[in-house]
Write a structure and sequence with these properties.
- The chain has 149 residues and is an alpha/beta fold.
- It has helices at residues 45-61, 77-87, 102-108, 137-147, and strands at 14-17, 34-40, 66-72, 94-97, 118-123, 126-131.
C-alpha cells in the first residue's frame, strides 16, 4: 500500500480497548478523519517500545481529530486482553484484533513491510504516510495531515 492508495472498508476488527472503529468508512461531507494504524504484537519488543510514543501522540492530537488504533493478528483474545490490561495507561489508544486479517491484507501486506511494528497515517481513508511508529517523521506527518485541507 503506497502513499495515495485508498484504504478499503475494514469493519471486522475485534476491539479489546477503546471505541470500535471502521477503517475505510467514507466520512460525511466536511468531516475529516485521521487514523494512525499500527500493526503490532505482544511478543514483539520493538512494538512494545513504540507503545508509549503512540500513546503520547494519541493524547497530544486527539482533540485535533486523530485516532490511534493498534492492530494485532494474534488469535488468543484472552492473552491480548491480558497484555493490554497489564499495559494500562501506557497503552492509552484503541486496540483491536484483526480477526479475519482484513486490515493486514488491505494495508500491511501491500506495503511490503519487512516486519512489525508498522504504522500508517490515513486521512479520509487515503494512505498519507507509512513507516516505523517511532520514526521522527510520524509526528511531522500527523501535523501535515491535520493541516492539509
Amino acid at each position: 500500500m503506497s502513499v495515495g492508495s485508498v484504504c478499503p472498508l475494514i469493519d471486522d476488527l475485534l476491539f479489546i480497548k477503546g471505541t470500535p472503529t471502521v477503517l475505510g468508512e467514507v466520512p460525511q461531507a466536511g468531516e475529516k478523519r485521521i487514523y494512525v494504524v499500527e500493526f503490532w504484537a505482544s511478543w514483539c519488543w520493538p512494538c512494545r517500545e513504540s507503545i508509549p510514543h503512540l500513546s503520547e501522540l494519541g493524547e497530544k492530537y486527539k482533540n485535533r481529530g486523530v485516532t490511534v488504533v493498534g492492530v494485532t493478528r494474534e488469535k488468543d483474545y484472552d492473552k491480548v486482553k491480558q497484555f493490554v490490561a497489564e499495559m494500562g495507561d501506557k497503552m492509552s489508544y484503541n486496540v483491536a484484533i484483526d480477526v479475519n486479517l482484513a486490515a493486514r491484507e488491505a494495508l500491511y501486506v501491500p506495503s511490503n513491510a519487512p516486519g512489525i511494528p508498522k504504522a500508517f497515517v490515513l486521512v479520509n481513508n487515503v494512505v498519507f504516510w507509512h513507516g516505523h511508529p517511532v520514526d521522527d517523521d510520524i509526528e511531522a506527518e500527523i501535523i501535515k495531515a491535520i493541516e492539509t485541507n
